[in-house]
């Protein structure tokens, strides 16, 4: 893999831990899917992973949702820190 796509070398199978690889499906319409490399070829143990493929639009949506949760958590933490500091300064006077 050469890192051509935004998820290349960054997304791993939750079942077996192998890397997900991008493939194109052309039925009924053209869509990119991410498949476990062990599903495409046998793993070192000789088994194939049976995890389902993930359509790229769904992977993108889940990634955006995860980043939004991180940002929201960061904003909440920042807000709580500011409130705590404000509360402490009120108690000093």
Task: State the domain count.
Answer: 1
Strand content: 15-25%
From N to C, what is the helix and strand string?
Answer: EEHEH
Main sheet overview: 3 strands, antiparallel
* Radius of gyration, whole Å: 21 Å
Discrete helix count: 2
- Apparent shape: elongated
- Side-by-side strand order of the widest sheet: 1-2-3
* Mean pLDDT over the residues: 79
Structural class by sheet pairing and helices:
alpha+beta
State the end-to-end CA separation.
61 Å
The count of strands amounts to: 3
Percent of residues in helices comes to 40-55%
Low-confidence stretches: none
Protein name: Zinc ribbon domain-containing protein
Domain Recombinase zinc beta ribbon: 7-67
InterPro entries: Zn_ribbon_recom_dom
What can you tell me about this protein's structure?
The chain is an alpha+beta fold. The protein has one domain (20-92). It is 44% helix and 15% strand. It contains two helices and three strands; from the N terminus they run E-E-H-E-H. The chain has helices at 37-40, 56-92; strands at 20-25, 31-36, 54-55. A three-stranded antiparallel beta sheet has the order 1-2-3. The longest helix has 37 residues, at 56-92. The mean pLDDT is 79. This is Zinc ribbon domain-containing protein. It comes from Ligilactobacillus ubinensis. Residues 7-67 form the Recombinase zinc beta ribbon domain. InterPro entries: Zn_ribbon_recom_dom.
